[in-house]
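Appendix C reproduces, verbatim, an entry submitted by the partner laboratory led by Prof. M.T., so that reviewers can inspect both the input and the predicted structure.
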Amino acid sequence: MTTQQEKILILDFGSQTTQLIARRIREQKVYCEIHPYTMELEKIRDMAPMGIIMSGGPASVYDKDAPISDKGIFGLDIPVLGICYGAQLMTSQLGGRVERAEKREFGKAELEIVYRGGVFAGMESGGHRYQVWMSHGDRIENIPPDFTVSARSEHSPYAAIRHTKKPFVGVQFHPEVAHTLIGTDVLRNFIFGICNCKPTWTMHSFIETTVEAIQARVGEKQVICALSGGVDSSVTAALVHRAIGDQLTCIYVNNGLMRTGESESILQFFKEKSRLNVIDVNAENYFLERLAGVIDPEKKRKIIGHGFINIFEQEAGKLGDVKYLAQGTLYPDVIESVSFRGGAVIKSHHNVGGLPEVMKLDLIEPLRELFKDEVRELGLELGLPEEAVFRQPFPGPGLGIRIMGEINGERLQVLRQADVIVLEEMKSAGYYRKVWQSFAVLLPIQTVGVMGDERTYENVIALRSVNSVDAMTADWSKLPYDLLGRISNRIINEVRGVNRVVFDISSKPPSTIEWE
């Protein structure tokens, strides 16, 4: 649980935009956390949030297995904002009625405000209309006792409602999405005007509280840090080093799944441009032997995760009194590795779900509450150079999850060569910093081609480039055709064993950014 004094609790009912709610609130310098709708009332009370937001979701409140949170939330004397499904559940639990709408509302709608207070403070009423984004097939037919209408749309007579005596608000539209032009104002009015939060959650304050917490927990013990050279582990190392100095030893493990020249450049950077104590472990054979013949992506992740921990514990044993392992787990890692809605886990992250149940070292995860862009901001606040902070994300399991199917030296060589070309061309065209991530994937299929008047039957490389803010959602990058053409031509001409290149145009969701 966070050490922040003021926080907003978001109860997740399965909406694909729940993470966007968190993003919008944190942009206002107010801390918030996402928890499942099943969160126990006692835990909510102990968390003492300044406000509660009930997210949207795909279900209907009258479904047999509809997700239902504890009605006792409304007896905690805490402001509550229900969004879409959250508003309908609030209505149902407090004595109103929700039914299937004759005309569903999906997409843009015009909102007419009839009450210029609460979440609509400072906005125009009396016929003025605002563009909002709707996504629901049900609507509120009768509002609960002591509630009144705040806004309406063409097909929703109760597009927004409020309790006349208590700080309960429900909106049928989604204020978290960009298409709702007043969305930021609505959320700002809720967290500041109704919840009385203060905009005090900054990276500077985060450093202060986190450093104090690390110092209090660690004492005089030794800590090792899993250093990969990526943004997350680099910022983790810098933050922990600020807290405990020479009590920290960083361990870089070459798992044999790194890109061309990656290990050499990472070690050179940290040895020449940081004050960190770094131990270099070459474990290429160790990992490749254990991955031989493994095809299932979850098994790959777990083998790699367990392998890292085994090596960290071995190195810790050589250092003496080491009690803790620091690693760069982020909030998206936690969300994707834990099922909030009773459904399937998306994937096990190597530093969350991939850890063995029995581990001798206790974990320190100082970035566990942060999204990626917040980590970059934190890195700059800590004084890290831009070359370290703005590197594209690279997964802990490395190329192991960018090779579909079996991992071996030959297939690694093919992917490494293709990957070099992708990064060279993206940087040359000025797109490396414009996109979130760009990389090559080696597919487990071969296709027919023609080279030099001869028939070939060789590998396929998939290009993946996405735009994102925090990796919770992503869209494929609209790269120029001539750039894609150069990448394709170079890979086919320069990488032996490849005769076809394809471009991945799927978004997240429904796809993930990485292929495994």
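The chain is about 30% helix and 25% strand. Additional entries are available on request from the coordinating office.
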